[in-house]
Amino acid sequence: MSTLALWRDKLAYQPVSLGIVAMLSGLALVVANTATLPGIAAAEQRDLQTSLEQVLPSGFASNDLVRDTILVSGGDGPPRTVYRARTAAGAICGTVFQVSGRGYAGDINILIGLDRDGRLLGARVIKHQETPGLGDKIESAKSRWIDDFAGKSLSSPPPAQWAVKKDGGVFDQFAGATITPRAVVKAVRQGLEFYAAHRAEILNDSPKESTR
Amino acid sequence: MNFREISRNGLWDQNIVLSQILGMCPTMAVTTSGTNGLGMGLATTAVLVCSNMLISSVRAFVSPQVRIPVYIVLIATLVTLVDMSLNAWMHDLYRVLGLFIALIVVNCAVLGRAEAFASRSGVLASALDGLFMGLGFTASLTVIGLIRELIGAGTLFAQASLLLGPAFAFLEIKVLPNYGGMLMMILPPAGFLVLGLLLALRRLFELRAAARTTPATAVPDAVAGCH
Amino acid sequence: MFAAVISLTLLGALLGLGLGVAATRFAVEGDPLVDELIALMPGSNCGQCGMAGCAAAAQAIAEGSATVTVCPAGGKALATMLGEKLGISVDLGDIVDDGPKLAVIAEEICIGCCRCLKVCPTDAMIGAPKQIHNVIREACTGCGNCIERCPTGAATLQPVPVTLPHWVWPKPAPALA
Amino acid sequence: MGLIETFLHRFAAPRWGVHPDDHKRPAADAPLRQLPLPERLYLPLQQHVGQPARPIVLPGQKVRKGQLVAEAQGRISAPVHASTSGTVAAIGEITAPHPSGLPFSAITLIPDGNDSAGDIDIVADPFALAPDEIAERVAAAGIVGLGGATFPSAAKLALGKRSKVTTLIVNGGECEPYLSCDDRIMRDHAADVVDGIRLMMHAIGAREALVGIEDNKPEAIAAMRRAAAGFAEVTVRPVPARYPMGSDRQLIQTLTGKEVPSDCRAADVGVIVNNVSTANAVHRALRLGEPLIRRIVTVNGGAVWQPGNLMVPVGALVSDLLDFVGLKSEPARLVMGGPMMGSVLPHAQVPVVKGTAGVLAFNEDDIATPPPSPCIRCGSCTQACPVGLLPLEMAALIRNDRLKDAAVLGLPDCIACGCCAYICPSHLPLVQYFSHAKSELWAQERSTLRMEATRKLAAERAVRLERDAREKAETAARRKAERAAQKAAQAAAEAALSTENAA
Amino acid sequence: MNPSSISLPPVASPHHLTGNSISRIMLTVCAALMPATLFAFWLYGWPAIFLWLVTVLSALAGEALCLRLSERPVAAVLGDGSALLTGWLLAMSLPPWAPWWIGALGGLFATVIAKQVFGGLGCNLFNPAMVARVFLLISFPVPMTAWVAPLPITAATAPGLHDGLMILLNGVPQLDAIASASLLSFAKTELSRGVDLVHALSGAAAPASSLIGARAGSLGETASLLIAAGGALLLITGVIRWHIPAAMAAGLVVPAAIAHAVDPARYLDVATHLLSGGATLGLFFIATDYVTSPNTKAGQLVFGAGCGLLTFIIRTWGGYPEGVAFAVLLMNALTPVIDRYLRPRILGRDWRGAPLNPETERAKS
Amino acid sequence: MGEYIALLITTAFVNNVVMVKFLGLCPFLGVSKRIDGALGMGMATTFVIVLAGAVCWNIEHWLLAPLGLGYLRIISFILVIAAIVQFTEMVIHKMAPSLYQTLGIYLPLIATNCAVLGLALINTQEGQSFVTAVIYDFGASTGFSIAMVMFAGMRERLALARIPAAFSGAPIAFILASLMSLAFMGFSGLNLS
Ligand SMILES: Cc1cc2nc3c(=O)[nH]c(=O)nc-3n(C[C@H](O)[C@H](O)[C@H](O)COP(=O)(O)O)c2cc1C
Ligand SMILES: Cc1cc2nc3c(=O)[nH]c(=O)nc-3n(C[C@H](O)[C@H](O)[C@H](O)COP(=O)(O)O)c2cc1C
Ligand SMILES: Cc1cc2nc3c(=O)[nH]c(=O)nc-3n(C[C@H](O)[C@H](O)[C@H](O)COP(=O)(O)O)c2cc1C
Ligand SMILES: Cc1cc2nc3c(=O)[nH]c(=O)nc-3n(C[C@H](O)[C@H](O)[C@H](O)CO)c2cc1C
Ligand code: SF4
Ligand code: SF4
Ligand code: SF4
Ligand code: SF4
Ligand code: FES
């Protein structure tokens, strides 16, 4: 102990001791990283899968959605990843992709699922920062509001009514919080428009365009 | 330091939140519901126990000059380890606590205990200290979270099953059906307010106790950690 | 993999070196605070504070084991000065400052034993063996050392009488509501 | 006052201060009355700032009117003269006209009723005297500032001469409500006042004199203008009636635009301020050879039957004055000086001193003081403070015993004018806070000085003890050496003896 | 020779005090509020009167409770009128037909949490009424933004005594049917829908309608002119000084005028800014609260300008349609710092507190 | 330029670290008894945050990202921060002992001031450029200092108030912070673009 005490105040002791601690920590982390990497990757995969399945009726897709994607550029912003659902026969029967809009407190990310004709199969908010108690009724866990989208398409209701009731549309707003639903409605509508514009590209099944 | 003293310190006398007033950021940020408070508290407890033990065992080798960096590296490593393992093997829990776990690194209470206790005490005592400090922390966070949740939404431990696992479903209670809710309670102002009122309550207890034991003495500076 | 370990180790070593150098470069010698406090104390080492003189009292104050109100000889004035030096607010209510005191010798009883003279820290007591002793008003700090030593009780502490120029306006009573 | 006039007044008036109801009339308009000689007079030894005077008479001694009974001690001091002829009964203590009710020393004089004066030494033309000689005569006459500060006037004149003062400001402000003694002096003795002013100018070497009189005293302004008509160097300047216009710094600023720096005297910026009554006293001292033994005192207040101004010998008891004017009711509070700055008297058995401008006997209605409420930070006090202080902040600090912090905010600059406490809607005793803090700080200062002295003494004692020890040791060593030497000598002697014997 | 001993503890000068008192000041302010309040009562009928009562009574009750707990004289302190004024001003800033618990919670919050916990009158750092208003707005955004169009008490469709009580207890039935946005939130909604203000604010929605109180809003917003008259009364009686109102008006008007000149389609005009929302009430009654505003003239100018500017910023770019309450609270938080750095100059000293130079003063004449 | 100013204002007020993001609360509550102390702490923290932010950005950009060592981020950032803080502490202790007296135990605690690490992590999370990151850090720490100074000013006044015994000290400080953050809610949703 006494020799240690002597050593501890030496200049060289500082870098060496801190270095050793850092090295051991680094080692531990490297080992842990190697050990956990596959687990984490698998878990994240599962997460994605379940989200995707939420916006499609159960049993709708027979393929592994996560592996059947296509990058579609267009609209504004970076290319979007579009996941495609297939029937047991392998034909494309629907697509899932993410849209987003600016809500009250930040971006709202919504996953929407469409059938071949561009009719909404379902929508789920996957990330938002809206005020709990006001804007968070867009979460399916909090309210069934988001289910209203199922079955809607660009033509029904007509484009003019793709808005909240306050603005003359068909969608309910929440008392005291119009901004959030307005943003969601707008984002979903834009998603439908995006699909309409790129339908051919998305449904084009030539294998070279599919990634992964 | 005996067991009684350590446990009493952790749970009440030197309670991290109510007495030392440390670790305020997670306290304020996560206590929007009882469930969140509980989760954060338990995660912190785990880290506190491990870090206290680790630091207590290496304390002889650490020179004063690099003491703090070493402690912090150790704590950060621990936290990252916990973070990774949860992510890989308990993914559902991780999805809930993931954010909180990263926050533990900078919870100054962890370093505070390392400095104030673990760097001067044996491994076992340090582990106990970490445990009770953590439990005291958990209790405070849960209480604050419950108060905010009850007034804010009329529920207790809402979504406990979703967050902590189905086993915790029994905790969920809707106390006030048909209650419109009070938005402020989940916003920053109420965090401060509820803790302030709790601290006042604690002070009231102590004033009463002091008045009972020594009727004529002046008001003690009850909150030692109130800098 | 190696990169991770090596870079972290290097980072740690580098910072450790920096800190080591800084610690030697910027080392702070001693505690200048205690010296400053000692300079403030009355310096009569009368021991009323219950410590081994003023330096010990200053040390205790600096360490926090004694409050700034510890020195009765210094009174409120000293306590405020110490409080300022330490940057803390002082609760002057703690100080029982019932005004300055003076030693007074009852001439009829004084036997001229000289004991008081020897213990007075400020040489405020004058007299010679077998003669009546006297107190120099200006020099007496009212420490009471002589009182304890006086075998006949001739020395007593009396409050210094208040005179017009020394009168202090009382502090107003606080507003009720 | 009409609406427009009120409006204009608001804008013309300075931005500091307050405008209390002045209550000066009818007392100011009543003709001056003479207080009959009381049975006993008490001549305090300390009626001025500085060293107290030292008595030079013995009990039983007979004195003439104007005879010196106590002489000045030191540079800043003033002598005391017998206010009338009579016998010195005692030299003892009497309650001081001070809120503390503490006693101070005074010479008790039993008048013989003759009021006979001693020899009078008058010069034919005082203007022929050297300035220093005028100052000496003023000093010998025991004149002190009669505006309230009671600073020995001769010292002020000397200071003025040394600092090359060019302007003498004569303070006829009399801004305190209820008081009218200066007003009376100016109305009745304007020529004497102007003469006194010119004498003081001569003593200082000032080029001009400005007489500042509040515009609520039109008769005094007219009288003074008439008296000063022949003297170009004396100008009468009406000033707005606003409390505390009579305070020297405010008057200097109003009349000359100069600001007296906070740590300086007025003389440092080339100005000297003297009260009109002081000028009158200077006139009487030099032209009539009469020392300062009497003064005009306003007796006023709701409890007084016949308010007015009295000519009073210094040393008369307040009770004598009140008996003379008669009381409507038992006064609820007795005040010496004005209502804004005067000090409350513990009882009526206190003597009138040179600086006593008024004795006010208030009834309950006059002083109805509601209990203080908390400060609502209305800022009225800040607005009113003529010095630009923050009374509310200082009071809050003092309430929490943070006196030094209050001093940092400017407590030492406070002139205790009372504007803040007057205007405060919460009726906070602000001036008492400040007086408390100032006296407490002085006390702390004294104890610090004392501590310093103690430290020195302790160090000296340590040195002495060391020296004693050393001396003792040296003596012991010497003794030892001596003894050793003795022994050696003895031994040598013995040896010698033995050798001798042997031989 | 010294017969009587000291009879009384020493009393300090001055022995002469103004007749002014706290209760007199507070009651003057209440009197100045009276015309606007009565007019608003007429406009909004019984529910508004009940809400006002509930708010004032709960503010008084909160104060009384705290006084009881801290063992201070209840009647004397309640008599100073400050709690009454707090409740009154809070009521003036609430939606007139809000349910009773809004008023009750607000009144209690104002006097208990925002005032008495800090030590009562004079010790609070934030304006109690505005703290309570913001607390209510944040906690209950829905009822706090539910405005109704004025429906004079004399109108046939106006709720009577009984219906008024029902509205107070149960809230407005079919709120959507009679709901009407206040001018500022209307403008904000239109802007967020992408309608420009030139179109949005034409015709019936023109800002001028708020001058005569024909627009939905709080009690204190509908009668801006009467509020301003009350403010003038306060100025004349010397209860408030002009610095804060003038600076606040300038802080609001100047940027508003510039912005409106640059882009009238996006920025509201000056009159709207001044006459709607709580601007007039804020100008004269709220920002001027002694306790929570600086007490030097320079400080008050800075404070007022800050209130005005922040109001403009929050109204124009913020998430809330109305900004006076937030602006006042933010400037309240800054008040001690303002007071600390903007002190008056001491006579004979320069701004930094050093004594002046005697020679330069001597040279003046 | 305009967007940088908007960023500065947004980070300082709208997303105030203390009042909105709940970072750095311990020093905010601990060192805010007097304006001077708060100002000193604010400046020390600003210094540390900007410096640490810049260093961490470079470490992330040149070391961690290229080598795929994302999992070492927390530990290496905290190491850098700790070292910078301790270095600052030693310098202040030597150069300005009185400042050291007031900042007391809080200097070492800057290392665990969540704001420092939090901001460094946010910088990388949002993939900001170096300039934006520095401006962001500067704005945030300025917001921290402003909040501290305002709070300290109010606490100086609180020290003179008649706070009920049960509330004096920490409880009233929290309630005050609560009302202050109520005021800061006014900035919520402020959108300068
Ligand atoms: C604290 C707070 C949070 C809010 N959060 C949201 C929100 O998340 N989503 C939303 O649409 N409106 C939110 N609002 C309301 C908006 O500010 C705005 O007043 C409202 O959306 C306007 O809608 P309205 O036309 O229905 O009144 C919030 C308001 C407050 C006070
Ligand atoms: C003291 C008190 C507090 C209340 N607080 C709230 C509240 O915070 N939020 C709310 O919506 N309703 C509140 N209420 C009102 C009732 O809870 C109300 O009846 C309930 O919101 C039912 O409303 P609904 O009929 O619109 O569903 C409160 C009532 C009382 C008596
Ligand atoms: C607040 C205040 C008010 C004063 N009012 C008067 C006054 O009304 N008349 C006056 O002669 N002196 C007044 N003085 C005293 C003057 O400042 C100054 O001391 C005096 O005029 C000097 O003249 P003297 O030495 O002849 O007394 C006042 C002083 C203060 C501080
Ligand atoms: C001119 C003036 C304005 C006032 N404004 C308010 C106010 O806006 N809100 C409030 O709660 N009290 C107000 N008061 C009342 C009182 O000052 C307030 O309750 C204190 O803040 C409580 O300490 C005002 C008082 C005056 C004299
Ligand atoms: S009481 Fe004061 S003077 Fe006496 S020894 Fe102690 S510190 Fe020194
Ligand atoms: S009390 Fe006695 S021992 Fe003490 S200083 Fe006075 S005379 Fe000396
Ligand atoms: S006048 Fe009185 S109530 Fe007003 S600020 Fe000054 S001390 Fe406070
Ligand atoms: S008494 Fe002092 S603080 Fe009050 S107004 Fe006069 S100078 Fe200013
Ligand atoms: S927990 Fe954030 S600073 Fe302490």
Structural class of chain D: alpha/beta
Bound molecules: flavin mononucleotide, riboflavin, iron/sulfur cluster, FE2/S2 (inorganic) cluster
Structural domains of chain E: how many: 1
The quaternary organization reads as heterohexamer
Note the beta-strand portion of chain E.
under 5%
Low-confidence stretches of chain D: none
Q: What overall form of chain D do the CA principal axes indicate?
A: globular
Task: Indicate the mean pLDDT of chain D.
Answer: 91
Order of helices and strands of chain E: HHHHHHHHHHHHHHHHHH
> Whole-number radius of gyration of chain D?
30 Å
In round numbers, the mean pLDDT of chain E is 87
How many β-strands of chain D, per DSSP? 17
Nearest-angstrom radius of gyration of chain E? 23 Å
Distance between the termini of chain E: 53 Å
- Major sheet of chain D: 6 strands, mixed
Instruction: Give the largest interface pair and sizes.
Output: D-E, 76 and 51 residues
The helicity of chain D comes to: 25-40%
Topology overview:
The complex is a heterohexamer of chains A (212), B (227), C (177), D (503), E (365) and F (193).
Chain B: H1 3-13, H2 24-30, H3 34-58, H4 67-89, H5 91-104, H6 108-116, H7 123-153, E1 155-156, H8 160-164, E2 173-174, H9 188-213
Antiparallel strand pairs in B: 1-2
Helix pairs in contact in B: 1-7, 3-4, 3-5, 3-7, 4-5, 4-6
Chain E: H1 22-69, H2 74-78, H3 82-92, H4 100-113, H5 128-139, H6 141-144, H7 161-170, H8 175-178, H9 183-193, H10 197-200, H11 219-222, H12 224-236, H13 243-262, H14 270-275, H15 279-286, H16 297-317, H17 324-341, H18 358-363
Helix pairs in contact in E: 1-3, 1-4, 1-7, 1-12, 3-4, 3-5, 4-5, 5-17, 12-15, 13-15, 13-16, 16-17
Chain F: H1 2-14, H2 25-30, H3 35-67, H4 73-95, H5 97-103, H6 106-110, H7 114-125, H8 130-158, H9 170-184
Helix pairs in contact in F: 1-8, 3-4, 3-7, 3-8, 4-5, 4-7, 7-8
One iron/sulfur cluster (SF4) binds next to helix 14 and helix 15 of chain D.
